[in-house]
Amino acid sequence: MFKAISSLRKSLVLPLHSNIRTLQTFSKYNAQAASALREKPLYQDDEYADVDWDNLGFGLTPADYMYVMKCSKDGEFTQGELSRFGNIQLSPSAGAIYEGTKAYRKENGKLHLFRPDHNAVRMQLGAERMLMPSPSVDQFVDAVKQTAFANKRWVPPSGKGSLYIRPLLMGSGPVLGLGPSREYTFIVYASPVGNYFKEGIAALNLYVEEEYVRAAPGGAGGVKSITNYAPVLKALSRAKSRGFSDVLYLDSVKKKYLEEASSCNVFVIKGRTISTPATNGTILEGITRKSVMEIASDQGYEVVEKAVHVDEVMDADEVFCTGTAVGVAPVGTITYQDKRVEYETGDESVCQKLRSVLVGIQTGLIEDTKGWVTCIN
User: Fold this and answer.
1) Mean pLDDT of 89-109
2) SS3 352
3) Tens digits of per-residue pLDDT, 259-313?
4) Is 40 an annotated catalytic residue?
5) Most Cβ neighbours (<10 Å): which of 27, 41, 179, 249?
6) pLDDT category, 95, cuts 50, 70, 90?
7) CA 63 to CA 158: how far, in whole Å?
């Protein structure tokens, strides 16, 4: 009997010791991982990261480093620093606004950014609307440049894609009631990307949404925050399940005037006139939108910002979308109230001509005479 009790005691104690050793090993691993994140980064000198550039899609592939800068309740940002990409500690009640820009590699290997100062200004305007402090233009651009340079091996070869850079401003202090955060954190991270839409540069098939709206007058439709994009997810999911590429949203009052797609601005072409919905607080003022408007004016087109009736869209010669993520994307068809209209696309289209100039400037194939490009090495 004593032998049986002794044997039972050993069978109970040994697994416990084994579990304790496992927990100790796991705790040691976590401590080492946390310590590694706090260490200053050692830049990788490889020319390229280990990525299949020819099959690069538009999904998150975290590059090596991110930039972190904090702001206290007095509204002043401290000196930020680069750290290894990894999880960050946040209050569960934190919120965010963000930006999107890209780094491109020229054929000679040099890297540059496209109009990052405009992203900085747009973040400031959005932060003001959301009652948040924001980095200065110089702080913003410097952070983006540092992040791009630190992750230079993740910038695809010329013509293979770009390094998508996501500046993020979030309330990182705890707050339960309705009110601004006590602390804010500014982060910049990066990911190499290819084409945004699965169609690549092929023409898109859009659906005009009549049930759901994405923004209303007096709201935050002109702010690049999660509050701007979360409302589109249900309609977008439904449209994609029906075989469409994206959704075109109408105004919330009369539901007769075009606003924008889920993640990009929209242009309508009729003859030599290019129209786009005016930014009146419900539409995001896209930086690619602004650039394309200027390029089109330079080429002799009449560019008009106005209220664009849905009937004008259905009678247009061409339609295309613009955005940092999507670039300049041609629209092949639009479906509205069970009526489907096809549009002109192809190499001779106005959309393609405007896209060629924009991409040429962004990638260094066309001389930048407008001061849009910022070199980072």
Assistant:
1) 86
2) helix
3) 999 989 999 999 999 999 999 899 999 999 999 999 999 999 999 999 999 999 9
4) no
5) 249
6) low
7) 18
Please spell the DSSP secondary structure of 137-202, one letter per residue.
HHHHHHHHHHHHHHTGGGSPPTTS-EEEEEEEEEE-S---SSS--S-EEEEEEEEEE--SSTTTTS
Mean pLDDT computed over 3-27: 42
Amino acid at 162: S
Domain 204-363: give its CATH code.
Answer: 3.20.10.10
Beta partners for residue 186, in sequence order? 69, 169
Q: Residue 375, Cα to own-chain centre: how many angstroms?
A: 21
Token reading at 314: 């259905």
Using alpha carbons, list the distances in angstroms from residue 307 to 246, 275, 286, 320, 327: 21, 9, 17, 17, 23
Q: Is a pLDDT exceeding 60 seen at residue 230?
A: yes
Q: What are phi and psi of 313, to 5 degrees?
A: -65, -45
Point out the catalytic residue in the list 224, 234, 254, 370.
224
96: β partners = 170
Whole-number Å distance between alpha carbons of 35 and 37: 5
Which residues on adjacent β-strands are paired with residue 111? 105
DSSP classification of residue 230:
G
d(CA 242, CA 362): 34
Task: Please state whether beta strands 162-171 and 327-336 pair in parallel, antiparallel, or not at all (unpaired).
Answer: unpaired
Q: Which helix (H) or strand (E) holds 322?
A: strand 318-323
DSSP 52-104: -GGG--SS----SEEEEEEE-TTS-B---EEEES------TT-EEEE--EEEE
Q: For residue range 30-68, what is the model confidence (pLDDT) as tens digits?
A: 444 444 445 555 667 788 999 999 999 888 899 999 999
Residue 271 structure tokens: 């003859």
CATH class of the domain whose range is 28-38+47-193: alpha beta
